Amino acid sequence: MDFEKISEELNNKNIQAIFDEKSESFKKFGKTFIGRLVGRTKYSQALGTKIMSFTILAGNYMAYKIPTEDIKEISEFCNNLFN
């Protein structure tokens, strides 16, 4: 998955993330997580940069840092959750 492109397209939009069943995020939040994508953490290395995690603002207005390796699928979620 091209997280660089995804983060540019979905930045500051409501998203739905589906987690890998073996991930820590799945154990903590369940199969899906809905919120607003508000940031990303990059890691620079000799071969380029890699996005390590997304920061997602949940409905309770708490921000959660989700590792990209835990995300199986991410897409825009059409709902007025924060409006």
* Unreliable parts: none
Share of residues in helices: 10-25%
Query: In order across it, which strands form the biggest sheet?
Result: 4-3-2-1-5
Count of separate DSSP helical elements: 2
Walk me through what this model shows:
The chain has helices at residues 3-10, 24-29, and strands spanning 14-19, 32-45, 48-57, 63-67, 71-76. It has 83 residues and is an alpha+beta fold. The protein has a five-stranded antiparallel sheet with strand order 4-3-2-1-5. β3 (48-57) and β4 (63-67) form a beta hairpin. The longest helix has 8 residues, at 3-10. The protein is globular, with a radius of gyration of 12 Å. The mean pLDDT is 90.
SSE arrangement:
Layout: H1 3-10, E1 14-19, H2 24-29, E2 32-45, E3 48-57, E4 63-67, E5 71-76
Antiparallel strand pairs: 1-2, 1-5, 2-3, 3-4
Keywords:
single chain, 83 residues, alpha+beta, five-stranded antiparallel beta sheet, 2 helices, 5 strands, 49% strand, globular
Quick rundown:
This protein has helices at residues 3-10, 24-29; strands spanning 14-19, 32-45, 48-57, 63-67, 71-76. With 83 residues, it is of the alpha+beta class.
